[in-house]
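Query structure, 243 tokens:
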């Protein structure tokens, strides 16, 4: 399902009628699981919609769903479904204190796929970067000079080269070919990739890693670079991280 159409659908649900009504069913006569019953609702049977996760929020189910954009990239959205499975609302949810309801993501499972990590602290962050993105360069430059964040956090780097940056993938591959995490980080900005070409075997190896990183990014609903997530998969503003 096209992302634009899904967003329009969400806007109609929230701003117009506020919900979609499905035929009522007797809850005590249906033995299907919550996930199965939610998948059976017509609003979630549109082509391209995939139910990723369902969390019990008391009187409601919070649902993470994804849809593929026209460019083939998946993005995640939230929906809320009543326990009688007759009403659904697509959009963000907040508790009584105004805190957004976020379904935690186990980001630890991605640790082993990182290109490298930077810092030695207990807090964990995950950054998706493009070596030719000017904002990514600024983030990395400020990160390098920020001793406090290096000592308080460990930042896992993943590559997401954008198609309009011709050399981004080459820089990313050169970075991954270095020996230590420090050398890999420095390789993003030292320009040595220009005079130290990789072998065809190395390029094939690291191209697979970049594709893996893109897949993870799409699963997380990444929309641009640099994008930073905390250990629960919650988006973090990179300028605020470095303050």
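Result returned for the query:
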């Amino acid at each position: 399902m096209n992302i634009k159409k899904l967003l329009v659908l969400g806007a109609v649900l929230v701003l117009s009628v506020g919900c979609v009504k499905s035929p009522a069913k007797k809850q005590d006569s249906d033995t299907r699981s919550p996930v199965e019953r939610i998948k059976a609702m017509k609003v979630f049977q549109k082509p391209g919609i995939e139910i990723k996760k369902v969390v019990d929020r008391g009187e409601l189910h919070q649902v993470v769903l994804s849809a593929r954009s026209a460019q083939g990239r998946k993005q995640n959205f939230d929906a809320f479904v009543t326990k009688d499975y007759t009403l659904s609302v697509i959009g963000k949810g907040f508790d009584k204190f105004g805190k957004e309801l976020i379904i935690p993501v186990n980001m630890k499972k991605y640790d082993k796929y990182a290109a490298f990590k930077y810092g030695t602290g207990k807090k964990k962050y995950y950054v998706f970067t493009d070596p030719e993105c000017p904002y990514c360069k600024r983030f990395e430059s400020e990160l390098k000079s920020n001793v406090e964040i290096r000592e308080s956090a460990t930042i896992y780097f993943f590559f997401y080269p954008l198609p309009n940056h011709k050399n981004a993938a080459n820089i990313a591959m050169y970075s991954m070919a270095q020996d230590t995490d420090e050398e890999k980080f420095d390789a993003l900005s030292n320009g040595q990739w220009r005079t130290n070409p990789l072998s065809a075997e190395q390029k094939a190896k690291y191209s697979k890693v970049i594709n893996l990183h893109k897949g993870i990014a799409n699963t997380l609903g990444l929309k641009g670079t640099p994008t930073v997530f905390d250990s629960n998969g919650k988006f973090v503003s990179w300028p605020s991280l470095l303050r």
